[in-house]
Amino acid sequence: MAKWKVYVTRLLPPKAMEALYNNPDLEVEVNPEDRPLTRQELLENVRGRDAVITQLVDKIDAEVMDAAKGVKIFANYAVGYDNIDVAAATERGILVTNTPDVLTDTTADLAWALLFAAARCIVPADKFTREGKYKGWAPMLFLGQDITGKTLGVIGSGRIGTAFAKKSKGFDMTVLYNDVNPNPRFEAETGGRFVDKETLLKESDFISLHVPLLPSTRHLISENEFKMMKKTAVLINTSRGPVIDEQALVKALKEGEIWAVGLDVYENEPELTPGLAELDNAVLLPHIASASIETRTKMGLMDVDNVVAALNGQLPPNCINPEAFKK
């Protein structure tokens, strides 16, 4: 019996790769270089595959799907899947999967790391110390914002937004949240109060974004929203880059409309909007919200389970488009 041909667009953690290589039914090939594939490389390497494990940087559209004629599944190594044209996949009977749940707390943890770093000037203070500029305690050195007892605004009350807000209990914070509709589960688990977006922006000391990228959330935070925020406000984004209008963000940070920002995602990722990298009140991370050893390994193993299920004619456990199953 011929083996199923699986292509991996970028190397996964060791245990996930071992699970692929040790499966006797799979013939596995992986991108040998630790970088994203070019468009042409992607089109060439998906040909003749039964399954492809993809990354968020891989744009999987109709052209790629047609190049991968006969492919049964695109297994995305992420909880998000806005890089994949799901409608086009469904039309062609191709299954699409993601890796939900396993990265919820890991991402929420990193959002808190960004919040603390931005609020307390951690990055410029670290740089200052490393450069030998620290000459002893000084009363006005790197003054930041207090966190305990302040008001936390959460936009997006899904799994990650809820996990993030729950962690605020240790800091005795007031929680406000906004979403398309009130979320009783969020309220029960966090004690949060549903408010409109304008109220949240005006009253919150810290604002964290946890929304998917949709037409309605693109530039959810832009020039008008920055003007509503407190001048001491700290904004955190671990969701999707285009949720924030980065040009308006740079302007708001330069002009002191808000105190600071902590970003793990970017509007034109991996490119940064000009001026952003030069700002000391911006903490900038390279999309590492899920980057713990345990979580990234679980994500990889989940992808393997999704691929194996699809190739064996079963509905994968994390299928986004079940209507394409056996179409």
Automatic annotation (TrEMBL):
EC number in record: 1.1.1.26
Any one annotated GO CC term: cytosol
GO molecular-function term, one example from the UniProt record: glyoxylate reductase (NADH) activity
Gene3D superfamilies the UniProt entry points to: NAD(P)-binding Rossmann-like Domain
Start and end residues of each D-isomer specific 2-hydroxyacid dehydrogenase NAD-binding domain: 113-289
Keyword field: Oxidoreductase
Cited Pfam families: 2-Hacid_dh, 2-Hacid_dh_C
Domain D-isomer specific 2-hydroxyacid dehydrogenase catalytic: 7-321
Family in the record: Belongs to the D-isomer specific 2-hydroxyacid dehydrogenase family.
Protein name: D-isomer specific 2-hydroxyacid dehydrogenase NAD-binding protein
Species whose genome carries this gene: Mahella australiensis (strain DSM 15567 / CIP 107919 / 50-1 BON)
